[in-house]
Specification:
The complex is a heterodimer.
Chain A: H1 13-31, H2 40-57, E1 63-65, E2 70-72, H3 74-101, H4 106-124, H5 128-146, H6 153-184, H7 189-199, H8 203-219, H9 228-235, H10 238-263, H11 268-290, H12 296-316, H13 320-348, H14 363-366, H15 368-382, H16 388-402, H17 406-432, H18 445-463, H19 466-474
Antiparallel strand pairs in A: 1-2
Chain B: H1 8-24, H2 31-54, E1 64-72, E2 77-83, H3 85-104, H4 112-131, H5 135-144, H6 146-156, H7 161-194, H8 201-205, H9 214-228, H10 237-244, H11 247-272, H12 274-279, H13 281-300, H14 305-326, H15 329-360, H16 371-374, H17 376-390, H18 396-411, H19 413-438, H20 455-473, H21 476-497, H22 508-523
Antiparallel strand pairs in B: 1-2
The chains are: A mainly alpha, B mainly alpha.
């Protein structure tokens, strides 16, 4: 099968396929009549499937190519598969939504595919400049996506806010990289680590590291760098918000783990404290702010801040198991969050006029299947056993206990009990209130299929998580953690 | 051991899901079909659980009908089920009460399909809790149980149902999450000491915990279970949940869910941390006695029958806790028996309260009076349930209460004497309530036309009353099945603390137990 393909090109095949698919979508968009619009999603899904097939072929065949800047290890393959899953689910949710908004255009799908390309480069980068390029590819695609429904004011506001704060955080990150470079003379992750081992830590290096981490914390919307998230998630189109809240977070967590492990592991006494503080702040601020939200998108935004906090418990463990737990958690989180945003997109209807929690009153009586899917996602977010959310939390907290971070874990579990309240509020609205209206929801078969995939995934990860737990564990085999 | 050639515990645990699957495909409009499907499922489920009793091997404390399959390999977690003489009866109680609860839910008219599905899901999780021998599996069932119960209270409950449902959920969850941390700690502690990752109950029990952390772990477990029991001062969710829950929900809540708290103490909390148990025993005995007296006194001043029964649960479960912490054969046997008895008697009372509520849509005592004249059969059953609850000799309540108090007297006379007030107080509030509801003249006009029990209701009550008399008159089959497990429990707690303190499970205590049963028969 390899034929003429150079061994060093092979790791890039998923990226190549995605890029080609994106370009094809753009071309088809230009040359096809308007009424064929809704098929871009399926074209995209086909490209994603092909890319996933190539990515699967890379599992277990580690390589380090392009002058040692691009690594293909199990972590990058596993996260690539997660991005592809997220993108595919987003494509299934989007056509119906965009059709109602009159914005079912080829460039939407192309932008998502380009974003995935950026994500893959980020996680595969062994050199911080390559990482930064990947991050910018992602960010620029996301700025455009956040404002994609341009006739809506909130949407434009979200895009602009995201652009400013994203640019701001990118420059902080870049400043940190500059500091690191000024000390170590290299931006290879391993190079930084070798320098630290040889020469010890200097204050400039620690400053650089901290700035880079602040940049990461911005991107994963961890408190106190979270302020943009509710506005952006609240304003962006629901499927885009779901994509942003999941894909970008998975990638930045993977990169954070890579950075902390490969580059600055010797400095862990410095960064562990920082991660712990940010974790506690994210959980507390995210959960308590979510309690007061009336808009379900904002509630999910605050909940995603809290979830970043839970996942950071695994990072703070600074262990192989902690890393594996974070990756598994991110997969679980992506599924349930995409499901929740998918339902929000359906219930919101044209112009997202119905995005308050009170708009869900009696949904179970009128749309039992939709309500059940939402309830399963919410119970999973709340961490009820039997769902993906529980196994994710369990594994993260277990890694924390193992690393003797018991106070942090106790704070985390108490927080997850608090969080149950606001998830239950939506369940209560759906199941225990009388319906106020008829729910003129137009079901798109693709969206229903996506919800089905998500629900099955949530139960699979919650009841028989063995295979994926092992996969995430093995993806940290090369780490020093 | 004791295998039947097929995985009976898996079947008993998951059979209700078959019913759920069928219900999913039944049209939501055909309520009769929905009800009958659910009922037949629970009847079959009950029949399936009966072989557990008949094939149960006597004279051993080892777990029986054990099934063990690797579940999550990387975590060392097993799908590991098994029952002993204690959980045998809790499983039977669960399947029995669920069957009656479905029958008592015939009057549910709103969202019948979802109701029956929730109930069957609840049954699976309850049986799962009692059968799990793997701590992760146990926790999974333990927490998953909250969801169907939350829905049952919140959707089909009374006027303040939403508040009650959320309170129930959050209280229980807040308690359990700390237990989860404790479980994980034990898991890694065992790994450090013994070198293998496992959630197996027996393996974790075999690794003692350092004295410096044991109290904390004990308290984390104890909090989860004390909320569930509920012990004073963690009881405040109970009156709300009970009063607002639909009748069948109350029956299951009182009959089975509360037992999970005491069961948790018995199976996990106390055997895991024997030193901490003895260290904190005065605290828990005090809380138990406070629960007994407080529950009874508050029950006495209730004007709502259902609330009265709810508070009486706090009192009765206090007796169970007293028996467990007194740690001798009689007290613990009594405590365990009292768990079953309370399930039957309080279950019966809630069923009866539900029946009268269906007729009159009120539960206030002052709305009644002279009911015995218009509903003689109802009054008779209510009388039996009342006597069972207050522990009249000849009925089940007596044996459990008496054994636990007598046992407690041997080790902690002061607490036992204080606990004994429960018998007086419970007679007071139950009989006083009975008098006000059933005797005298019919004063309220609406009560004059009340119909007596229907055939369905009569059958429900007949079925509850049979085991009441059975345990009351001939408790030996129950006691002899639970005795080895109870002795094992005591030796787990006491034996590990002081090996030098003589303890002979087959010796003196056993004789005195047999003598006691004889004595007990004479008393009757």
């Amino acid at each position: 099968m390899t034929g003429g393909i150079d061994i060093s090109i092979r790791p890039l095949l998923p990226v190549v396929v995605l890029t080609v698919t994106a370009v094809v979508v753009l071309f088809v968009d230009v040359f096809s009549p308007r009424e064929r619009e809704s098929h871009y999603g399926y074209l995209g899904v086909a490209g994603i499937a092909l890319a996933a097939w190539f990515a699967l072929g890379l599992w277990g065949k580690g390589s380090l190519t392009f002058t040692q800047t691009f690594i293909t290890d199990k972590l990058s393959v596993l996260t690539t598969l997660i991005y592809l899953l997220i993108a595919a689910l987003t494509f299934l949710f989007s056509p119906g939504y965009l059709h109602h908004e009159g914005r079912n255009l080829g460039e939407y799908y192309a932008l998502v595919l380009f974003a995935v390309v950026g994500l893959i480069f980020m996680t595969s980068a062994q050199h911080l400049i390559l990482f930064f390029v990947g991050l910018e590819v992602l960010s620029i695609a996301l700025y455009a996506l956040a404002g994609f429904v341009r006739q809506r004011d909130l949407c434009n506001e979200a895009a602009l806010k995201y652009l400013f704060l994203g640019g701001f955080s990118s420059s902080i990150l870049l400043l940190g990289l500059a500091f690191i470079y000024s000390v170590t003379d290299t931006l290879y992750l391993r190079g930084v680590a070798s320098y630290v081992v040889a020469h010890g830590a200097s204050s400039t290096l620690i400053l650089g590291m901290s700035l880079v981490m602040v940049g990461f914390f911005f991107k994963i919307s961890a408190a106190p760098f979270h302020a943009w998230a509710p506005d952006v998630y609240g304003g962006a189109p629901a499927p885009v918000a779901g994509f942003m809240a999941t894909a970008a977070k998975v990638a930045v967590f993977a990169v954070l783990l890579r950075f902390l492990d490969s580059a600055v592991f010797p400095l862990r006494s410095h960064w562990m404290a920082m991660v712990t503080v940010v974790s506690v702040l994210s959980m507390v601020i995210g959960n308590f702010a979510a309690l007061r939200q009336e808009n379900i998108k904002r509630m999910l935004a605050y909940s995603s801040i809290a979830h970043a906090g839970y996942a950071l418990v695994g990072v703070a463990a600074a262990s192989r198991q902690g890393g594996a737990a974070v990756v598994f958690y991110m997969l679980a989180y992506s599924l349930m969050n995409l499901g929740a945003f998918g339902v929000v997109a359906l219930v919101g209807r044209q112009g997202e006029g119905y995005v308050n929690i009170s708009d869900y009153a009696g949904l179970a009586a009128k749309r039992p299947v939709l309500a059940a899917a939402m309830a399963i996602c919410l119970f999973s977010l709340a961490g009820i056993p039997g769902t993906a959310g529980f196994m994710g939390k369990f594994y993260v907290f277990a890694s924390g206990v193992k690393a003797n971070q018991i106070p942090l874990v106790v704070i985390a579990v108490i927080n997850s009990a608090v969080a149950a309240y606001y998830y239950l509020r939506v369940v209560y609205m759906m199941y225990m209130e009388e319906p106020k209206e008829e729910y003129q929801i137009v079901f798109h078969p693709a969206a229903v299929f996506a919800l089905l995939v998500i629900v099955v995934g949530i139960f699979q990860l919650g009841i028989i998580p063995g295979g994926l737990l092992s996969a995430s564990y093995s993806s940290f085999a090369w780490f020093t953690f | 051991m004791g295998g039947l050639g097929f995985p009976i515990l898996t079947v008993v645990t998951f059979f209700p899901l078959v019913g759920v699957l069928i219900l999913l495909f039944v049209d939501k409009g055909s309520k009769r079909v929905l009800r009958w499907t659910a009922f037949v499922t629970t009847v079959v489920e009950f029949l399936l659980s009966l072989p557990l009793y008949f094939k149960f091997q006597l004279g051993t404390h080892h777990f029986q009908f054990v099934e063990k399959i690797s579940w999550i390999k990387i975590l060392g977690s097993y799908y590991h089920l098994g029952i002993d003489g204690i959980t045998l009866f809790l499983v039977l109680l669960t399947t029995f009460l669920t069957m009656l609860s479905i029958l008592a839910s015939w009057t549910i008219d709103k969202h019948v399909k979802e109701y029956m599905i929730s109930f069957l899901l609840l049954e699976t999780t309850m049986v799962g809790v009692f059968c799990s021998l793997d701590l992760l599996l146990f926790y999974l069932f333990w927490e998953a149980m909250l969801v169907p119960m939350y829905l049952l209270i919140g959707v089909w409950g009374g006027p303040r149902r939403v508040y009650a449902a959320i309170k129930f959920f959050l209280y229980t969850m807040a308690g359990s999450v700390l237990m989860l941390v404790s479980i994980i700690y034990l898991y890694y502690h065992h790994y450090k000491v013994a070198g293998d990752l496992t959630f197996n109950l027996a393996s974790l029990l075999s690794t003692p915990v350092a004295a410096s952390v044991a109290p904390w772990l004990f308290l984390a477990f104890a909090l989860a279970f004390a909320i569930k029991v509920p012990m004073w001062p963690f009881h405040t969710w109970l009156p709300d949940a009970h009063v607002e829950a639909p009748t069948a929900g109350s029956v299951i809540l009182a009959g089975v869910l509360l037992k999970m708290g005491t069961y948790g103490f018995l199976r996990f909390c106390m055997p895991f941390f024997p030193t901490a148990t003895l260290h904190f025993s005065y605290l828990f005995l005090t809380l138990a006695v406070i629960s007994i007296i407080y529950g009874a006194l508050v029950a006495m001043v209730q004007d709502d029958v259902k609330k009265l029964v709810a508070y009486s649960s706090v009192s009765h479960l206090g007796t169970v806790m007293l028996g467990l912490f007194a740690l001798n054969l009689q007290s613990v046997s009594g405590g365990v028996l009292q768990m079953i008895n309370h399930g039957l008697s309080t279950g019966a009372l809630f069923l009866l309260v539900g029946m009268i509520y269906d007729r009159r849509h009120t539960r206030l005592i002052k709305e009644f009076g002279g009911i015995a004249k218009v509903m003689p059969i109802f009054a008779t059953f209510f009388m039996i349930a009342t006597f069972s609850s207050i522990g009249l000799p000849g009925l089940n309540g007596f044996i459990g209460e008496f054994l636990s108090l007598v046992g407690a007297f041997k080790t902690y006379p002061v607490f036992a004497v204080l606990g004994t007030t429960a018998t007086v107080l419970s007679a007071a509030y139950m009989l006083w309530m009975y008098k006000r509801v059933f005797f005298h003249e019919v004063t309220v006009e609406a009560n004059k036309e009340l119909k007596d029990l229907s055939f369905r209701e009569f059958m429900i009550m007949l079925m509850v009353v049979i085991p009441m008399f059975w345990i009351g008159l001939y408790p030996k089959p129950v006691l002899e099945r639970m005795e080895p497990s109870v002795l094992n429990f005591i030796s787990q707690v006491k034996g590990r603390v002081s090996a030098q303190k003589e303890f002979s499970p087959q010796g003196k205590e056993r004789v005195s137990m047999a003598a006691f049963i004889v004595e007990n028969k004479e008393l009757r």
